[in-house]
Amino acid sequence: MKETLAPKDIIKSGLCIGCGSCVAQNKALEARMEFDPYGQLKPKGSRQFLQTPSSQFTLTCPFSPAAKNENELAAERYPAAPHTDGYIGRFTQSYIGYVATGGFRMQGSSGGMVSWVAAELMRRGLIDGVAHVVPADPEKDGRFFKFRISRSLEAINQGAQSRYYPIDMSEILEEIRQVPGRYAIVGIPCFIKAVHLLRREDPVLQERIVYTLGLFCGHMKSARFVESFAWQMDVPIEDVTQVAYRTKHPERPANWYNARLTLKDGSSVNKDWWHLADGDWGAGYFMNPACNFCDDVVGETADISFGDAWIEPYASDSGGNNVVVIRHALVQQMIEEGIAHGDLHLTPVDAATVVQTQAAGFRQRREGMAYRLSWGNKGVQPIKRLPPDALTPTRNRKLIYRMRYWISEGSHRFFHLARKTGKPNIYIKWARMAAAMYHALAYQRGKLGKLVQKLKLTDA
Ligand SMILES: Cc1cc2nc3c(=O)[nH]c(=O)nc-3n(C[C@H](O)[C@H](O)[C@H](O)COP(=O)(O)OP(=O)(O)OC[C@H]3O[C@@H](n4cnc5c(N)ncnc54)[C@H](O)[C@@H]3O)c2cc1C
Ligand code: SF4
Ligand code: SF4
Predict the structure, then answer these.
(1) Long-range contacts of 358-363 (CB under 8 A, 24+ apart)
(2) Residue 317: CB partners within 8 Å, gap ≥ 6?
(3) Does the beta carbon of 16 sit less than 6 angstroms from any atom of ligand 2?
(4) Is residue 249 part of a domain?
(5) CB atoms within 10 A of CB 199
(6) Is the reported ipTM for this assembly greater than 0.95?
(7) Does any ligand 1 atom lie closer than 6 A to the CB of residue 222?
(8) Cβ distance 109 to 257 under 8 Å?
(9) Is 80 inside any structural domain?
(10) How far apart are CA 352 and CA 70, in angstroms?
(11) How far is Cα 34 from Cα 353, in angstroms, rounded to an integer?
């Protein structure tokens, strides 16, 4: 094994995504997950826990350079998968579509497939519980969302919708270890990777976590994103009881995101993302720094993974459409039966189509990540499936990758300053200025965009 690491090494190197795996393994050492000053969940605990290097940690932290990578984990779990693609990994079949039965599609963020698969696994008696993310009580829990194990179909439905909010698995992993049963876990790719790494070392988790449901992932936001919503909707964050990142409207395309905050008095406020200073997802506001060094967009180690079909005609369909990639033979059979019974409206698509639905994400996390690797990292050097590469990206692409990096870093710092001084405008004005610069560079928009063209900073 390469150098043996401790949690502190990963945290200090900006590589901690806050999955909670190390905390789940060290409850006895006062280990716990807490928000840092930038609204990101990080491990806390005794010096012994944080600073003692161990081979167990080095093998199980998803950002440890010595941990098995996504290709190795997928090869172990899906040796018989008939197809392999450089972007989506091993798979049996991929589809685009939605759930045609019950309220799954309407309640879901996309086509409702995650909740349907979780519910179907339970209905068929294949699992006893699903670990997924549900709303929390901000007053009691000090956060808007948390992982929970749902043990009924009704509880699974309560969890529908995407949460771009820091959550961690420390408590549910502990619960799975304590309470015998068969469990499915829903998670973003790095969390599913963490689960597999832990399963390799822990026979109890190996036996009890029987299915993994992956979400495609662009990046993870900090908890400050919700506070920024509140500032920009003119409501005190203390009054917010519930957060919906994406609400559906029958007359609007699925990709016109509208965020809604529910308040203590039962009223609600909402705003379209494009009216928010930080509402351009691609610009990378509030992104966890670890996401700079992640190359798994589609959850390559999950039994089945789900994203949004961001290509036409699906993106304009107000109901929402999933893109689905299957890797597990039994899940494949379940999906085929769902289609045959008319419960699922899914059309088979090839790997290239899946990649097309996530084109921007793959640019940022493959070409962009290789470019960022070429800068080196302070502390632990991540080892990824791609080598560092500063030669391939064009000048315009390099500027865009640098701008996103700068926006992510700046959003944490300017928000922190604005929060500390009680002056939201410090952040909001900076965020608008950063968006104008990003849009000029990426889309040649506005007066700045003309300047970008004049200076020949575009690819054309
Ligand atoms: C941080 C994040 C980034 C994403 N980025 C992309 C992207 O770039 N491209 C893309 O196509 N799709 C992305 N997705 C996935 C997308 O938003 C939808 O979640 C996915 O298409 C499933 O929709 P659905 O209607 O099938 O799910 P639903 O039926 O609405 O069910 C969603 C399920 O996911 C669980 N869940 C919600 N948030 C989390 C979370 N943070 N961690 C674990 N479980 C959770 C819920 O509890 C629920 O069980 C992202 C999701 C997240 C959480
Ligand atoms: S990424 Fe997960 S396992 Fe690694 S240090 Fe952070 S919380 Fe611990
Ligand atoms: S981009 Fe990668 S590291 Fe970041 S949250 Fe998504 S899966 Fe995790």
Answers:
(1) 358/216, 358/297, 358/298, 358/307, 358/310, 358/323, 360/282, 361/216, 361/217, 361/218, 361/297, 362/87, 362/297, 363/397
(2) 253, 254
(3) yes
(4) no
(5) 20
(6) yes
(7) no
(8) no
(9) yes
(10) 20
(11) 39
Q: How far is the CA of 62 from the centre of ligand 2 (A)?
A: 7
The helix/strand/coil state of 44 is strand
User: Cβ distance 359 to 340 under 8 Å?
Assistant: no
* Tokens 């962009």 belong to residue: 368
Q: Give the separation between CA 383 and CA 373, rounded to whole angstroms.
A: 9
Residue 395 lies in a domain: no
**Angle at which helices 224-232 and 395-421 cross, to 10°:** 70
Give the DSSP letter of residue 28: G
- Verify whether ligand 3 is closer than 6 Å to residue 16 (CB atom): no
DSSP per residue, 346-411: EEEE-HHHHHHHTHHHHIIIIIHHHHHHTT--SSSPP--SS---SSSS-HHHHHHHHHHHHHHHHH
pLDDT for 1 beyond 70: no
Q: Which domain holds residue 130?
A: 7-221+286-361
Residue 293 and residue 384 in contact, taking contact as beta carbons nearer than 8 Å: yes
Backbone angles phi, psi at 16, to 5 degrees: -85, 120
Give the number of domains in the chain. Answer: 1
Q: Quick: pLDDT tens for 186-223.
A: 999 999 999 999 999 999 999 999 999 999 999 999 99
Q: Ligand 2 mean position to 19 CA, how many Å? A: 5
Whether ligand 2 lies within 6 angstroms of the CB of 223 is answered as no
Domain-located, residue 399:
no
- For 240-262, give the secondary structure using H, E and C: EEEEECCCCCCCCCCCCCEEEEE
Helices 446-454 and 424-443 cross at an angle (nearest 10°) of: 40
Mean of all residue pLDDT scores within the chain: 96
460: confidence class by pLDDT, cuts 50, 70, 90: low
